[in-house]
Amino acid sequence: MRRVPASGLNGRVITPKALITAAAAMAVAIAAAPALGAPTPVPTSGAAAGKLTRIVPGITYQTMTRPGPQRLHMVSFTYNALTRMAPAQSSGSLTRRATIEDGMASRLAQGATAGINGDFFSLSNGTPSGVLSVGPELLASPEPTRSSLAIAAGGWLSVGTLSLDSRYRRIDPTTGTKGVKRIVRAVNRPLASTSTTGVVVYTSAYGSATPSEPGYEVLVALDGGGAFPVAGTIQGTVIAQRPGGGTPVAPGQIVLSGKNLSGVTLFNEFLPGTRMEIEASIPGVAPDAWGAIGGGPTLVQDGRAVASSRESFSSSQRNGRTTRSAVGQKPDGTILMVVSEGPQQGVRGYTMSEQAKMLESLGLITAMGLDAGGSSMMAIGPNQVVPNTGSRPISDMLVAYYAGAQLSIPPDNRVTPNGDGVADTITLGAQSPVPGTTNVTVARRGGGFSASVLDRTGDAAYTPITIDPRALGMPEGPYNVTATLTPADGSPATSQKRIIVVDRTLGALRVSSRGAKASRRVTAAFTLSRPARVTAQVTTSRGRVVATLARNKKMPRGRKSVTWNGRSGKNLVRAGTYYVTITASSSLGRTALRDGVRVR
Asked: Where in the chain is the domain with CATH 2.60.40.4070?
């Protein structure tokens, strides 16, 4: 046996990947990092230990285990004066994918609380397969052979197929007479994916330049800047022409790109200086909608599970058992974002039809599928909660926002400032989604200690706050961490509270090993600062218990140790990585540490 090399897995700081039950969180952390080089805190309290977590008023996160076995991750969204839900690009460009963690991290200052992966996407250029609109701006046009989701003002969902209805025409600079209306086939979707002829509009949302391909392009400066709308009429002036694509496009500009006869007509009719008008519409998406996102298929309609064979999905996409994502709505307006785990997470997984029946059983009256497999992800703040060996970059996502004060949820709310270098501090993120003054205080429950850890006035921001109990002189016990945001526009102040516990009971875990295969011996040494009941277990990389070295055993304060002989029952374990978890229960609750060894 030998000590496992470092893995970089974090514990109670802001970066861990699990906000689920304590046992599941431990299994997720181990699966994400099969080797540990330093003791790691194991969630034993706080959000990570509960089945239902209130993120902010109106938005909660929950896990559920169903027969199969099947495991679900669910975010529940209820509309109120401070909540909204909208699609978002994962990065700043439709052709540049990013992970859901990065997409959420870039929107924390806007009040992003929870997110789920969005549409399927092109592996060749990264663009979403279907529609993407955010507020009044259209970023990508619909795919009419698959379902789309539209989010109306107030948070009501509609699911169905959508199509682009857009026309452009020339305006005579002398008379103002408007010419023949011609069809815009797509927005930010390369011509090769739409037709051998026709005209596509590109905006700066596509990227810094249009794709290089045969055809003709005209660059248009929009009146007053602005963006391409979901519904409405815009005008502008042609400022440049270019054959062959690759035209740079900046905010406030659009490029019309035509192929074959449509391109020649475009090039001849719209010379520099020509005025142009574009009428845009997507029937089914209102101008004041929060947004629209593609995906598919329709899974629940009028409260009933429906078949997916009517939409353009392959047999393997429909019938494969895998991790799957979906979004839907209950009769009272509550929106559910749901990710069901699959074989990659060690459970059976759903087919599309089984996923539809599952969503029906949750009481949804309408629901639509999103991208599946390795793209199926969910994040609370910047932390992914679905166990994965890695995070796949995606094209777009669906995000729930909150416009009030927020404090991030620590995976474990215990901080153990005993100088062993593990969880000596705790970091929370303060979100201020609107300009104003943000104050964050730490106060011991029952009195005896209070301190201010943040006092800032300015624009919307996300501010990481590290609380160091030793530096602040915090005695052991439970504390309220409270963030208050007073908006600059005079609207009512909002606040949010998280509870942390300063607990020095358990520390300085060190796991060492020696001995040949026939006489393996692992020693786990640790320190107790007060008497406690100790449980010590050895688990596999997937969290299965192979040995219990102590069970709720009373131990006095001081340096302690337990040993393992490398066996599960009477049998020597197979070669691999194993983990020793020490849990100490005292008057302050439970705290735990984990360290690993590799058995040869």
From this structure: 1-50+505-600
